[in-house]
Structure formats: C-alpha cells, structure tokens
Specification:
The protein is mostly helical and 166 residues long. The chain has helices spanning 5-12, 15-33, 36-51, 53-70, 73-109, 114-140. Helix content is 75%, strand content 0%. Helix 2 (15-33) packs antiparallel against helix 6 and helix 3 runs parallel beside helix 6. The model is unreliable at 160-166 (pLDDT under 50).
Length: 166
C-alpha cells in the first residue's frame, strides 16, 4: 500500500497536537496525584507523541510541491507560512520528546527525581502545544478558505518563487 505524502501528513498531523494535549493532561494529573506509574505513562506518551512531529514534518515537506499546485493564491501564502512555522518550531517538539525520554531513563537511576523532572517535560509539552496550534492554524487555511478570517500573512518569500528543498 502506497500512501501519498500529503495523505500521510493529513493522517498523522493531529497526533503531535491533539495526542500531545491528552498526554499533557495525563502527565499533569499524575503529577498532581503524585502517582509514579501514571507519571511514567505520561512521560512515555509525551515522548511518543512529541516525537511523532518528525514524520508529520517529513511528510509535509515531501508534499509541499503537490499541495502548492492544488492551492489558490492565498492558500499558497498560507502554505509557505505553515512551512516556515513548522520549520521554526520543530526543534521544540524534538526537545520535548528527547527530554521526556531522557527523564524516563533518569527515573530508573534517580527515582526520587521523577516528579521534579516531569514538570520540565510538561512545560515543554505545553509550549509545543502553543507552537503546534499556530502551525495547525496556518495549515488549515491552505485548502479551506472558510477558515481564512483575515488577510493572508505576509509572504516570507514575496517576490521569490521559493521551492521547498526538502
């Protein structure tokens, strides 16, 4: 079965946002309850779901040219804006995933530090959610004019027919 990158992107793109939101709820609830097994679960979910930003970004980059061909002029501006935001904030998702996984590993060596370390993962995940909401907002406007409530963002490549190189 061969899934086109733009379809793969659409299938996965909600996981680093909606999935990570659920993971943060689990992690914060576990921290408030001071429940070690639930904290470990929350960290594992944060690590997994933040890490899924990687295939989402890769599939988005692979589908850039095809989606650009399908978009209207305002949609092309939103596509470029979506791409710029994703490339600007992808490192935050990767850092969130890495911190969550490292904290899981550190928890085996230093079990008493789990609660304090998990707070860092929760904060990074919350920041990733804010970035993800901005990225998703721009992405939704590419092919859905009904979501465009104001003027298109300033085109970061105005006057330059930027072809995404990934």
């Amino acid at each position: 079965m061969n899934i086109e990158p733009e379809h793969f992107h659409v299938l996965l793109n909600h996981l680093p946002l909606v999935g990570l939101m659920v993971a943060v709820v689990v992690l914060v609830a576990a921290l408030l309850l001071r429940n070690r097994p639930a904290t470990v679960l929350g960290l594992a979910l944060v690590g997994l779901l933040a890490g899924l930003a990687w295939p989402v970004i890769e599939s988005g980059q692979s589908s850039y040219v095809r989606v650009r061909e399908l978009a209207d002029e305002d949609g092309k501006v939103h596509l470029r804006h979506h791409m710029v935001l994703a490339e600007r904030w992808d490192k935050l998702y990767y850092a969130t995933a890495a911190v969550a996984v490292l904290e899981l590993l550190a928890a085996w060596r230093w079990p008493r530090g789990l609660q304090a370390l998990a707070v860092l993962a929760a904060l990074l995940a919350a920041a990733s959610l804010v970035a993800g909401a901005l990225i998703a907002d721009a992405g939704g406007k590419i092919r859905h004019p009904e979501f465009r409530t104001g003027p298109a963002p300033v085109d970061p490549f105005s006057g330059d027919e930027h072809q995404h190189s990934h």
